[in-house]
Amino acid sequence: MHQDGLPPLRRRLAFATIAMTLFVAVLDGTVANVALPPITRDLGVSPVEAIWVVNGYQLAVTVLLLPLARLGEILGYRRVYLAGLGVFTLASLACALSPSLDVLIAARVIQGMGAAGIMSVNIALIRFIFPAARLGRAVGRVAIVVGVSSAAGPSLAGAILSVTSWQALFLINVPVGVLALLAGSRTLPDTPRSTRPFHLTSALLSAATFGMVISGVNGIGHSEGLPASLGLLVGGLAIGVVFVRMQLRMDEPILPVDLLRRPIFALSAATSVCSFGAQGIAFVSLPFLLHDELGRSAAETGLLLTPWPIATAIAAAISGRLADRFDPARLSALGLVLFSAGLVALVFLPAGAGDLDLVWRLALAGFGFGLFQTPNNKILITSAPRERSGGASGIQSTARLVGQSLGVALVAVILGLVAAEPLRAALALAAVLAAAGVVPSLLRRYEARPAAPMDEAARAEEMASGG
């Protein structure tokens, strides 16, 4: 019988390792956008060339998530996580020392490979770090880290660039990575391993499918070479058909079709794609709405968008505890209702709206998203057998990236097709996507046993550890 979580002190140190590492991995997906102007100036390249500093990282993360999640099931999640962290740390140093754009792009691709090792198994590790009775609040803490790092990226990057060079954005990862490696090597748990071998052909087909589809979607989203982008999308989907048919014949596939056959898992993954798609649409549309339609400055726009991630972090903390006590399927459905309501309120934002009118709408949308995300992720990970936690973790991260890319592409399509108030039309579509997840969320039946009441010792330990 497996151990139900780690001892309290080791548990806190292990989660601190996860939090530090995940923070910098997610952060590096956003800070490079802010660093592109000084990079183009210092290296003497064009913006079109420099965009691969961002795209190379994102593609590497996306194409390797599922293969590395499967590798974690075979080698152990701890090994894949620490190897990914080591690669990420060394590649961060290489990014800071890059003398040319080609070297920087190569280092960013390797950095993305390391980040994929981190993101592919982090939720799977959480399942072995925390007791089952506290898994909801643990997943909530992960959501807080992801939300805060995503939101803090542009502001932190701007602050660093105001006092030093762009190389510092990558250099700060090195001490954090070294500290996390030292802590993780001592605290992260060993996990059961699958005896089935790694299937290289499946890994290559997975990489080709997601790489081509995401490249095509991103190309459409940035209005770059529409025929080539559509060709990538169609080619990726064609390879995907071959990939899926191969996975259907395997007992432990890289693409977890065995888990997707479970209605509760498939519905959770689908609603995750919809919610992140809605969030992606909103995050692209809102800066333009505030700056262009409402006349806010760039600084005011950044400040006014802050209530969203703050509300998301607060809701994630609250819903993490609630998901351990109440039906997480209904809780996530309530979050989607609030998320959609906030987006609808933004659609009908008056032309001369004041800051307070905007803040409560953004806070409502962000709170709803945070309330949805944590219980949904708990269902996603616990509806899979413990030995398939890697596949569930990989799907969770893949759903986030696919949803965000889909959201960017949909905004570009709407801007090209809708003549009257396209930004509000985009927000309306985001509200529809969020609302579309309510029905499947309510249809889910959460099958895990409710947590047993904590005894006095456990309750005292929770209070001493802050929950």
Question: Characteristics of this structure?
Answer:
single chain, 467 residues, mainly alpha, Growth Hormone, Chain: A, 3 domains, 20 helices, 0% strand, disordered C terminus, MFS transporter, transmembrane transporter activity, transmembrane helix
Question: What secondary-structure arrangement, pairings included, does this model have?
Answer:
Elements (H helix, E strand, L loop, with lengths): L7 H36 L3 H4 L1 H24 L1 H20 L4 H29 L5 H27 L5 H5 L1 H15 L12 H22 L4 H22 L9 H4 L2 H31 L4 H7 L2 H17 L4 H20 L7 H28 L6 H29 L4 H15 L1 H6 L12 H10 L2
Helix pairs in contact: 1-3, 1-5, 1-6, 1-8, 3-4, 3-5, 3-9, 3-17, 4-5, 4-8, 5-17, 6-14, 6-16, 9-10, 9-17, 12-16, 12-17, 12-18, 14-16, 15-16, 15-18, 16-17, 17-18
Describe this entry's structure for a reader:
This protein has 467 residues and is mainly α. It folds into three domains: 7-191, Growth Hormone, Chain: A, CATH 1.20.1250.20; 200-249; 255-445, Up-down Bundle (Growth Hormone, Chain: A). Helix content is 79%, strand content 0%. The chain contains 20 helices and no strands. It has helices spanning 8-43, 47-50, 52-75, 77-96, 101-129, 135-161, 167-171, 173-187, 200-221, 226-247, 257-260, 263-293, 298-304, 307-323, 328-347, 355-382, 389-417, 422-436, 438-443, 456-465. Helix 17 packs antiparallel against helix 18. Mean pLDDT is 82; it is low at 446-467.
